[in-house]
Design goal:
Layout (H helix, E strand, L loop, with lengths): L5 H11 L4 H13 L8 H13 L3 H12 L6 H14 L3 H14 L7 H13 L3 H13 L6 H13 L3 H13 L6 H13 L3 H13 L6 H13 L3 H13 L6 H13 L3 H12 L10 H13 L3 H13 L6 H13 L3 H14 L5 H13 L3 H13 L6 H13 L3 H13 L6 H13 L3 H13 L6 H13 L3 H14 L28 H13 L3 H13 L6 H13 L3 H13 L6 H13 L3 H14 L5 H13 L3 H13 L6 H13 L3 H15 L3 H13 L3 H14 L8 H10 L3 H13 L10 H9 L3 H20 L14 H21 L6 H11 L18 H4 L3
Helix pairs in contact: 1-2, 1-3, 3-5, 4-5, 4-6, 5-6, 5-7, 7-8, 7-9, 9-10, 9-11, 10-11, 11-12, 11-13, 13-14, 13-15, 15-16, 15-17, 16-17, 17-18, 17-19, 19-20, 19-21, 20-21, 21-22, 21-23, 23-24, 23-25, 25-26, 25-27, 27-28, 27-29, 28-29, 29-30, 29-31, 31-32, 31-33, 32-33, 33-34, 33-35, ...
The protein binds one DNA strand of 10 nucleotides through helix 7, helix 9, helix 11, helix 13 and helix 15.
Protein name: Pentatricopeptide repeat-containing protein
Keywords: Repeat
InterPro entries: PPR_rpt (IPR002885), TPR-like_helical_dom_sf (IPR011990)
Length: 881
DNA sequence: TTAGGGTTAG
């Protein structure tokens, strides 16, 4: 160590202990406290503070800041600069800013280097702190520091990220006339901006500009453009770019290949992507080797294409070759499992990750939470949230929005508003996704004026109304029969973008006319799909066809969903030849018919009893390799049953099992109904038992069979099934217990009827008190006044209990249901039964007694409004400021 | 230390 120069000594010690910042810091303090200590060099301060910042030793950084302020004025500014730069580079934005602030306050004539400003600008932009960006930019000008190319590049990149392409372009154009010339990064950033916004054609024009200014495009720029074209499906353009780059001596690398593979997977051409992937693995072909990302793309492709087994095999091979170790691999696999309904496995994988010490991140949890919510398993989702909280990760806006969506789709309004409040009180603010979820929920509930208030709030808070919001409103209008309004808005969107919603009556929306064309939200495939489906449902087929022509004229390519919509509509109206014309047209246009397409056709033919044609269609499916599914078979079963060929229909069950297709509850139900209709109860019962074996002991199967027996006078058999239902704890809502009690009484079997009632009471069921009446009547007629009174009392108890638990129909029923549905279903049935009771005049007086209870309880608006009265679904925005 | 390919919600 050279100790002849004390300043070198300081530097040396600091350098040697750079890896132990705490020790370096102590040594530094010690040396600096010596009276003969020389001033440290800026580079040593940079190394020290970089180490302190990296180790997040924040109090030490503050202390250092303080010490540096006391250095002689010849050394202090440069050392402070070094400190601030190191803090800034480590991303400790607030420290770096306060250090810059002291520098500027104490040494106003010292101009900080542009590099410091650039670094601070970069972090401020990343943190979305436009206030800081502005302040820094002003301070730069005050310090007479000129922005350089790097500064402009940062600003452009940020503008592009927030979709402000035109402003980014303006900045870019100003660069060419200013002292700072655009470099390859400037071009790269702008090109990326155009490509990300879907304007690859505008991006590629910049290649010519580059040529003019003598700036050579590099591999990154070519890859940006190629992936942009691939994303837009412009494969021809992508290919010619590859040729152009080869001519310039640049060769496609793994990124280029990944862009192609990604595009193929996104358009469902997984097998083609897989072929390329295999070629990349083949040493002889000299292609770039697949990397981590290539594997992820193929894995995701398999998962999205429903090829779970292939995906699983790939995961195994990735594990073997060490390509399955990063969190991202796990997250892709998690999302694949969820998308393919393997929720249990996904949940287990998540816990496995925790056990293995591979910390799942917010993405991992959100993926599983979303899957559970989509399957209606909100409790499961809530439990994953606790798991996540226990592992130190807090919910974000995505988590809350996902949960909100779960509650909304199940009509659980109270849960939804609870989530909204929880999210805001935890500092997560609703974004446009959240708003769209709410918007859809409100429209679905028919609460249009509230939806309009929400649109207004979204607008005030600056959440742009995007194409999703527009599509939600258009869907809502179609569902509510306001098709003309919907069409008017779509037309207006071509001119004014989302501002066309203003025609809904919201004058304020006129103010948000999308100013720049690049951001305007124009009708898309979903818009037309929604509109066309609305028109078809309303029987306005000619207008639907016109809209179809309009969309293709606007270069929106129809997908199989739209074709299916037309096929469905034609089938519904019995226009089978038109339906087949659509099928041929879609094939001609290169849109592959799906199993669903054929199922619709079979359904249409089935309702016209055209069995030969059905046969032709199923043959065609087999020839074209389009798999039949359970719905296909159910359609076949339905049409045969309708044609009173139940036996032939039943034989299809065998064919299904031969083809590896499991019949479902619908398959069996159709057959049970058909055999019951023809009074072939032995066959019906055989199917019923087969169904129980295949589908499990399902309540719907029991209730169906019980209803069939009961309707056809098979009272004993029906009663037996009802008894089983009691034992199994099923909800009896769908069982014909009232009818059965009534019929038993009519057949003078009051004892059987009474025993049924007693079983229901003993099992704790809460049921329609009207079921008591036939028995009370019968007992009264028989002169058994004592028993009749006893039952009357029990009926009164049931009525009281009914008052207390407004919605419960049985002890097994799950709590929350869609409030509106409950109202229409339950109230009307109870009310009508009670009205019938009250109209009776048998002098028993019971009816009047009961009436009083009815007036106190049921039918009196005891149904809670979908949103709890005391909570305004919109007030959460007020606290967001 | 600013530009390319992979993971979450409507």
């Amino acid at each position: 160590m050279n100790s002849s120069n004390p300043r070198r000594l300081v530097d040396e010690i600091l350098r040697r202990n750079a890896r132990n910042p705490a020790l370096a810091w102590r040594l530094f303090k010690h040396l600096l406290s010596s009276p003969s200590a020389p001033a440290p060099s800026p580079s040593s301060i940079f190394s020290l503070s970089r180490a302190l910042a990296h180790a997040r030793l924040l109090p030490e950084l503050d202390h250092l800041h303080h010490l540096l302020l006391n250095l002689p004025p010849s050394a202090a500014p440069r050392c402070l600069t070094a400190l601030s730069l190191a803090s800034s580079m480590a991303g400790i934005l607030d420290h770096a800013l306060s250090q810059l602030h002291s520098l500027r306050a104490h040494f106003p004539s010292h101009a900080p280097p542009i590099r410091l400003y650039n670094s601070l600008l970069g972090w401020s932009l990343k943190a979305n702190r436009s206030d800081l960006v502005e302040a820094l930019y002003k301070d730069m000008l005050l310090a007479r520091v000129s922005p350089d190319t790097y500064t402009f590049n940062l600003l452009m990149s940020s503008l592009c990220d927030s979709g402000r392409l035109d402003e980014a372009r303006l900045l870019f154009d100003r660069m060419t006339v200013k002292s700072c010339q655009p470099n390859e990064f400037s071009f790269g950033i702008l090109i990326r901006g155009y490509c990300k916004a879907g304007f690859s054609l505008r991006a590629v024009e910049l290649l010519d500009v580059m040529e003019r200014v003598g700036c050579l495009p590099n591999l990154v720029i070519y890859n940006t453009l190629i992936s942009g074209f691939c994303r837009e499906g412009r494969i021809g353009e992508a290919k010619s770019l590859v040729e152009r780059m080869r001519k310039e001596g640049l060769f496609p690398n793994v990124v280029t290949f990944n862009a192609r593979i990604s595009a193929l997977c996104k358009t469902g051409k997984v097998l083609e992507a897989y072929r390329i992937f295999r070629d990349m693995q083949n040493d002889e072909l000299g292609l770039p080797r697949p990397n981590q990302i290539t594997f992820n793309l193929i894995l995701d492709g398999f998962c999205n294409g429903g090829m779970v087994d292939e995906a699983r095999a790939l995961v195994e091979s990735m594990k073997e070759s060490g390509f399955f170790a990063q969190l991202e691999n796990y997250n892709i696999w998690l999302s694949g499992l969820v998308k393919n309904g393997r929720l249990l496995e996904a949940r287990m994988l998540l816990e496995d990750m925790v056990r293995k010490g591979l910390k799942p991140n917010l993405y991992s949890y959100n993926i599983v939470i979303d899957g559970l919510c989509k399957e209606g398993m909100i409790f499961g989702a809530e439990s994953v949230i606790s798991l996540m909280r226990n592992n130190g990760i807090s919910s974000d806006t995505v988590t809350y929005s996902t949960l909100l969506h779960g509650y909304c789709t199940q009509g659980k309004a109270y849960g939804a508003s609870k989530i909204l409040h929880e999210m805001v009180s935890n500092g997560c603010f609703p974004n446009s996704f959240t708003c769209n979820i709410l918007l859809q929920s409100l429209w679905k509930e028919g609460r249009i004026s509230e939806a309009e208030i929400l649109l207004q709030k979204m607008n005030e808070k600056g959440y742009g109304l995007d194409i999703v919001s527009c599509n939600i409103v258009i869907d809502g209008l179609c569902e509510n029969g306001k098709l003309d309004k919907a069409m008017e808005i779509v037309e207006g969107m071509w001119q004014h973008g989302s501002a066309a919603l203003g025609e809904l009556g919201n004058a304020f929306l006129v103010l948000v006319d999308d100013v720049n064309d690049s951001k305007k939200c124009l009708p898309d495939l979903i818009t037309y799909s929604t509109l066309i489906s609305g028109l078809c449902n309303a029987g306005r087929l000619d207008e639907a066809k016109k809209k179809f022509v309009e969309m293709t004229g606007k270069n929106i390519a129809p997908d199989s969903v739209i074709y299916d919509t037309f096929i469905h509509a034609f089938c519904k109206h019995g226009k089978m030849s038109s339906a087949f014309k659509v099928l041929r047209d879609m094939e001609k246009k290169g849109c592959k018919p799906s199993t669903r397409t054929y199922n619709l056709l079979i359904w249409g033919l089935g309702s016209k009893q055209q069995f030969n044609e059905i046969q032709n269609v199923t043959n065609e499916m087999q020839e074209k390799g389009i798999p039949l599914d359970v719905i296909t078979y159910n359609n076949l079963i339905r049409s045969l049953c309708d044609g009173e060929m139940a036996r032939k229909a039943a034989s299809l069950l065998e064919e299904m099992s031969k083809n590896g297709i499991m019949p479902n509850i619908t398959s069996f139900s159709l057959l049970i109904k058909a055999f019951s209709k023809s009074s072939d109860f032995d066959a019906a019962q055989a199917i019923f038992h087969g169904a129980l074996t295949t589908c499990g002991q399902k309540e719907v199967l029991y209730s169906l069979m019980c209803n069939e027996f009961s309707m056809n006078g098979k009272l004993l058999e029906a009663k037996e099934l009802l008894q089983i239902a009691f034992e199994r704890g099923f909800s009896i809502e769908r069982f014909p217990y009232k009818h059965l009690v009534d019929e038993l009484c009519k057949e003078q079997r009051v004892d059987d009827a009474q025993s049924l009632l007693n079983s229901m009471i003993n099992k704790g069921y809460l049921f329609d008190p009207a079921a008591f009446m036939p028995v009370i009547d019968a007992l009264g007629k028989k002169g058994n006044k004592h028993e009749a009174d006893k039952l009357s009392e029990q009926m009164m108890d049931m009525a009281t209990y009914h008052d207390k638990s407004k919605f419960l129909t049985s002890h097994t029923q799950h709590s929350e249901m869609k409030p509106r549905r409950i109202k229409s279903k339950q109230d009307t049935s109870l009310e009508s039964d009670w009205r019938n009771l009250l109209l009776r005049d048998d002098g028993s007086g019971i009816a009047m007694k009961v009436l009083k209870r009815v007036q106190k309880g049921w039918g009196q608006g005891s149904i809670p409004s979908p949103w709890p009265q005391n909570i305004d679904p919109f007030d959460v925005w007020e606290s967001t400021g």
